[in-house]
Amino acid sequence: MVLKESLLGQKEYLTPDDLINASLLVSRRTIVRNEIASWAGVDFDKLNCVATFNLVNNAAVMVEEGLGIALTIDKIIHLHNDSKIKFIPFCPELNVGNVIVWKKNQTFSQASQKFLNMLKKVR
Predict the structure, then answer these.
(1) What 8-state DSSP symbol labels residue 12?
(2) Apex CA 119: angle with CA 55 and CA 38, to 5°?
(3) Residues 108 and 116: beta-carbon distance below 8 Å
(4) Are 15 and 61 in contact (CB under 8 A)?
């Protein structure tokens, strides 16, 4: 996610070179950091990571405030047309895996159970 009005916000896609000097907001998860560094072809420590996040909504606020660009999954949050931020894809594309975890024998609401059943069908 980037500010629409920023230099990177004018680009059609982001390359590893675009990330080298950018102020990055990244997930706290080590596996995600390693995937980004591998894609960029650099050690993660060489990237300018200015903040970490666990919740992408918090990252969106940081981007809106001009703290940096957030490296996150596209369409993980809904952005309105009047939003100050937008998603820009990587080139070459970076595909990452996701994991959903829940407690064994947990009682779910009806909506949660339907969601879980749907997830089990698509894996």
Answers:
(1) S
(2) 50
(3) yes
(4) no
CA dist., res. 7 & res. 58, Å (int) = 22
For residue 114, the model assigns a pLDDT of 94
Cross-strand pairs, 2? 86
CA pair distance 8, 83, nearest whole angstrom? 16
Q: What is the pLDDT of residue 79?
A: 85
Residue 51 CB burial class (10 angstroms; 0-12, 13-18, ≥19):
middle
When pLDDT is averaged across residues 16-36 and rounded to a whole number, the result is: 89
d(CA 7, CA 91): 17
pTM over 0.70: yes
pLDDT digits over 72-92, tens only? 988 888 888 889 999 999 999
Beta bridge pairs of residue 70: 25
Half-sphere exposure of 45 (CA within 13 A, CB side): 0
Burial readout 5-23 (b: 16 or more C-beta within 10 A, e: otherwise): ebeebeeeebebebbeebe
